[in-house]
Protein 1
Amino acid sequence: MLKFNYGKQGTVLESVADPIEDVINRRVVLAMRSAQPIHMEPSFVSLIVPSEIPEVRALAFELTQGNCDAVSLSTQESLSDLSLESIAPSDFISHDIEVIMRGVWLTHHPDAEEGVFFTSLTTEIEEQIEELWTYQPAASS
């Protein structure tokens, strides 16, 4: 499972071994026991990455191998979902790719900007997302 922590210092991505249901249940129990409000709703996060990096192709390949409805790829220009079969080599050359992940947003208030986003994917897809997250473009001289 991937956990995106949104806070004042930015966003941090963590890989968590526990099932998403267990983590959310623990958070709900903690909120109830500490008399703190909790808000949970289905949501999504997206990550824009350059299409020319190898990790994008690796992710697209992983998505074609399994049943993963929680992740989709879009071109930044159209923002419409691409079917994995329709991704042409030119899409990887000429466009940035938006990686959209569906999951659960958990926070203390519906309008809060700080909170946690959870999504559960296959190990291979999670590893590809982590690679994309840590991608640093080469500095041009």
Note: The chain has one domain: 2-76+96-134.
Protein 2
Amino acid sequence: MAPRRARAVDAGVDLRDHLIGAAARLIARRGAAGLTVREIAREAEVATGVLYNHFADKEELLALGLHGHVRAAERDLPPLPADGEEVGRALLAYTKRALDLHLVIVPAFANLAPEVLERFTALGNPAAGGQGLRDQLAAYLRRRRDAGDIAPGAPVDAAATMIIGACHEVTLRVPAAVPEGFAEDLVTIVLDGIRVR
């Protein structure tokens, strides 16, 4: 038994989870493209063959590692405001959080093999507890609309798509940099369209 495997099992850590965690750490540092099984095994401190006892292939491990990377990056972000927060401030917090998350995770997807992306997508959205950022934001906006804080007919799904889409667009640029005041401007534009008049 490899030394790291013994420590992982003795500590009550599932070896499969340990291997996914090792892949997620490497992906966070250098992205998923070109990552080898040997590098993941080295990070996990196990023999390379151990990985094939727990995963069908490298693509499965990389997809799971990407999922782990997204969840870990999200855990490091500040919490979202409560529904009672003023809508403009809350919407700004949601937008800044989405931008911060995108800045951390988008580089991991650069030059990703289509097979890995397909496997990643099949696992479901890892962000917002599986809900996904767009749906999480749309649900928040629906709750605020139901409370009367947003215009009754406001197209909240479109507003959520616009915000998260803008986060994608600005963080996909090379180099990824969010222009000063971008989040504030985006929130102002959205609120002008959905605020109670």
Note: The domain at 1-76 is CATH 1.10.357.10 (Tetracycline Repressor; domain 2).
Protein 3
Amino acid sequence: MTTIDDATLARLHDAYLQAFADLPGPLFSRRRFQWLFTHGSPGQRHEVRVVEEGGEPVACYRLRFPEHDNTHIAWLDPLFVRPDRRGRGLGARLLDEAAGRARANGRSLLFVETPTDGVGARFAVAHGFTVSVAEARRTLDLRTADWAGFRRMLPPVEGYEVELWTGPTAPERLADLGTVMGGMNDAPADASTEHSHFDAERVRAHEESMVPGGLDCYTAMARRVGDGAPAGFTRIFLDADREDGWALQTDTAVLRAHRGHRLGLLLKLANLLRLREREPQLERVVTWNAKSNAHMLAINEAMGFRLLDEWNTWRLPI
């Protein structure tokens, strides 16, 4: 855990907002930003480096080191320089330092995500990164969405039932949630990455960090009626303070043995309809997919998600 005092964190968040002001879509709230930069993510170590000038933060990186699997990887999440301090080599110096810290931690591959256009992409190319996964963000405007149409779209799926809950997952569901989270290993990823394994304790750590980390969550999980086997899941996260009107559609997966029943569409629609019922003030949902994930893209577009922007995950052997 990296220690940064609250006053510095507040100024660092202001620098972060300036650095990414041109990006469409949601940015981290101060509460969420402060949690990530002090506590990080469960199952990962992190290091934070802040550059100050005249007592003001002007540049920063955060390095994430997965500990359970993919221990050859480090993530720059993020690296940024305040716009009025760019063009002086600060970013290059921070990248060199971050790569050195990653190597010192036994890592051989560095990842970062940026939009396909703009300063981040130019920086990545100039410093030897290559594209690992091409991605896109899409948004659904909840204010104009066809809610009656969504109810008509709900597919009749025999032999399965959907469980819905809000907030952290109850202890009795942790193992099953871990099972369906394993379905995300089928999503497009860098060829060097290993499958992630989610046992109950690993899932518990993630769930226990949700509330103190400034998040709330809506989850839908499908089970086969005959034997109760978990079959798939989807999740929507939102800021616990409901500050910005955004929600984030994250993982959706159906296990191989249960595919072909339209469970993915059922889960996403059921979860979204419940979100609308409970959170009518929300304005938009944003989701993120690999451009090669044709099946999930088709579901999103059928639901009315429209392209916001395109991103790359970049890789750099170190």
Note: Residues 185 and 195 are 6 Å apart (CA to CA).
Protein 4
Amino acid sequence: MKKDIQIPEVSGIEIAIVYEYNDIYKTDDWNVYIINNKDVDLELVVIVSKGYNDNKISSTLRKKLDVLPANSFAKVELIQPELFALNNDFQVSFFESNTLYDKTFSFKKGTIREGALRMIPTMKKRGVVAR
């Protein structure tokens, strides 16, 4: 039975944690984005995130996007720097051409920091990317 199940591989999707200036509150914030580098729209995108280590677990966040257009990105959530001491997982599920795809993107503890920021060409902003 298991050999009959086809699990398609996810490619062209990234999760980025971006350090950017917030014009409204006049602060520098860390924000989570999903990036669609594909030439097709993604439908019914669901993102479930949580942080954890050996003795702590953060609350679980769920976010839904009806459509993520081709070659675009969308802000998912603000993330507090205190969570960078935890491993952070973002499970992304979506439909592409009536096929369900699923992938977990992980940021290990300590990998999200100002010294690790790199330019993200799609966004023209600096951040840390999980592929």
Note: The chain has a mean pLDDT of 95.
